[in-house]
Amino acid sequence: MTVVERPTLAEVGASVPRKDGREKLSGQAQYVGDMEVAGMLHGKILRSPTAHAKITSIDTSAAQEMEGVAAVLTGDDLQDIEPYYGHAIKDRPIVALDRVRFAGEPVAAVAAVNEATAEAAMRAIEVEYEELPVLGTLEQALAADAQRLHDRRPKIGLFHGLGDLGEQQGNVCYRHTISAGDIDRVRKEAAITVEGTYTFPAVYQYAMETHATIAHYHGDGVTLWANCQHPFLVQAEIADLFGLQVGSVRIMVPYLGGGFGSKSYTKMEPLTVALARKAGRPVRIVNRVEESMVTTRRHGMRCWMRTTAGADGTLLTREVHFWLDTGAYADNGPRVTATAADAAPGPYRFEAADVQGYCVYCNTPPSGSYRAFGATHLQWIGESQVDEVARRAGLDPVRLRRRCLAVPGEPVRPDGTGKPLDADLVGDVEQAAAAVGWDEPRRPWRGRGVSVGLLAAGAHPVSRASVRLSSDGSVDVYVGTTELGQGPRTVMAQIAAEELGVSSGLVHVHGADTRFTPYDRSTGASRSTTVAGLAVKRAADAVAQRLRETAGEVWDVDPTLVDLVDGHAVFSGEEITFPDLIAKRFGFRGGEIIEGGEVRPTGGDTGSYAEGPHFWEVCVAGAEVEVDPDTGIIDVLRTATIADVGKAINPQLIERQDEGATLQGVGNALFEEMRLVDGLVTNDNLLEYRVPRVADLPKRMRSIIVENEDGPGPYGAKGCGEGAFAAVPAAIVCALADAGVPMQELPLTPERVWRRIQELSKSTP
Amino acid sequence: MDLTLTVNGRELRAEVEPHELLLDFLRDRLGLTGAKRSCDVQVCGTCTVLVDGAPVSACSYLAADAHQKEVLTIEGFAQMQEFERFEDAFLRHAALQCGYCTPGLLLTIKSLRDNGELSNEAEIRHGLDGNLCRCTGYRSILEAARELAA
User: Fold this and answer.
1) Minimal Cβ distance to A656: which of B33, B36, B94
2) Where does B2-77 sit in CATH, by number?
3) What is the ipTM for the molecules in this complex?
């Protein structure tokens, strides 16, 4: 008998091909919009054409009489429930009740036998509005005499996670402050002061699959098929909203056609449930692109920042005031504000800092999560000020960073709260710089930049998972993480396979069904591998323990001496297959071993969530750009991103994810912008809202993996895939400034850049 | 109006509305959901199917215009022997993530390849510029396409 020698970590660290690959390539993978259930109706939403108005009347009679129409829903149908939702602040009615607050807000909805009938009936609904002044910009919403957009005292949502949200003042729905040191005293010592105001545009996530939900409201509760990133949070919100028990709300999540945050928390589900409740039949609502664009987006922002330093460039103080346009309803605005505040100082040793973040209601479409939110908003501003300090001090920007960046173990937040630094940022920056040719000779109108930042990641570390070993030796993993392209079905299989000593080919990872899948807090904040992956590892390890125990009984040996190798229990030259072991355990060819794993904020080796965040996601990139002074067109010559992941469980998937983040970063930096005029999105289609194409690829793009095994996740892993997004626009802005064109407004459109070049050439004769 | 066409090698007759889109015909009538809907304005390419071997955006193409033509969707392509090479290249390069744009991309590459329009880097980049992918950053897709071109 030969015993197979198994290398340590056979599965973990291997670029295993995607387990969902064949299903997706062959067109068999199902998304919500591909699914039908028996008796299903199609829903269409009547949306407000105006950004702010009183609803004076709604006449649905013509729509209701149309053949094929099963139900027409308005606010009148919601009188038996408290119809406000919102995971952070319960400020949003399922449909507008007496007032619309943004253009595109649902006012009524129709369920009919097909989409065309539903659309025709929707158009037959007559609504009269009395226009109100539109607060379409931050300035308008923050004016002293601005009307308050929300009169009722808002109730706190189930999942804001930010402690006491405090009193709302005017249209400021949330405020986040970080303050440390005697800023006025320290600033007096400064020899260098860099100060400016900056703007960041509203951006559309453009997950190619739009929001889609099928809801069936029946005697036992509600069944939903939804393309949501956080099924368990949606389940709790739907139960709360409709007065149901959590367990009677069942949500199934198939594949998602991208998310990037746009499908986080609750989106179209309450309206679909309300419509299905009225219709008494299942209803499917699939948004069109223009509808998803007004369902959620990235916050536009205005920011004032001042950084000071000593004559030698040593950083002294930073002050940041920023205002985020969260739209008509808070959505995830409070969390975005908190995360932006965390990113505002940057991971530097400042002697004093003061950050004031404001989340502001406007008559614009609601803003929520988009990949690396907060950090993407602030990093380009902070890093361009650091570079300006370096220029004035006559220092190389990489050298300044080497001197002033925090080192592992030092506090990240200026006030010393939260998790200390858990990454080698200096090493990361040096690698990024080298990869974009930092020390190569400079040419006119070309520049290089590096950027470094941190993103508070992990969200609330609560995940459960279960692992089942069937009698034939195949393995199922039940974990609530949503597969939206980032690859958890592959990575979770690798983790389970590693612990059990089987090939990942035998492991199957399933989409969430809240009725059977163990609880997982959410899919976002780069937490799946780190948090849910640890729950999978623990569950698989528990199954492995049962296998060892059974083998120990069979051979009458100490179970801890039994190895699990290639689908066999092995001890001292003896081996037995897993199926034979299970047959011995149960005395017949059946049964199974199923165990759970848990991650929670306290206890075990996960640290304390009270420290928050669970880990700091590293946001480091370098870029080299060339600008054409005659046109303002920017050519991105080189990018390098650092995936400081602790341990790369599947290196190829990490590289690929960061390549995608790089291109989204290029789009956000160079041309992506939702143009809002009086609260109306004037480019609400893919003809006028441009997303990156093949032609927009940087000439050279590198994704570098750093493995220091310093994460809280399985095998020392920590999350990735978002950091590069925050870092790339910042590196591009820094590179453009290095080329001679400092910019304070994104995106860097040719016109804006050209105008800036004209201004600069006038001011420097 | 009466429509006669071949879908994935099978001849079909159907009564369609003059304004019925090919995408709706394929998805709703035939249950061929591999072609996806996204932008609706012929920009994203995720609804791409082949009509007489040429890629069209089924979201902006009338079903009636496919009269007496041959339509190939991902479901049909996946049954063809050459599909294995495409599958292998895309898997090895991890040239897909969420998978939503993938069927349209595969059919576009097949068409370019069949028509000899993948012979150099410029052609590959030009040929794929009409298919959006929000996840991958395109590099992996270009790598797979180069391999399939060879």
Assistant:
1) B94
2) 3.10.20.30
3) 0.99
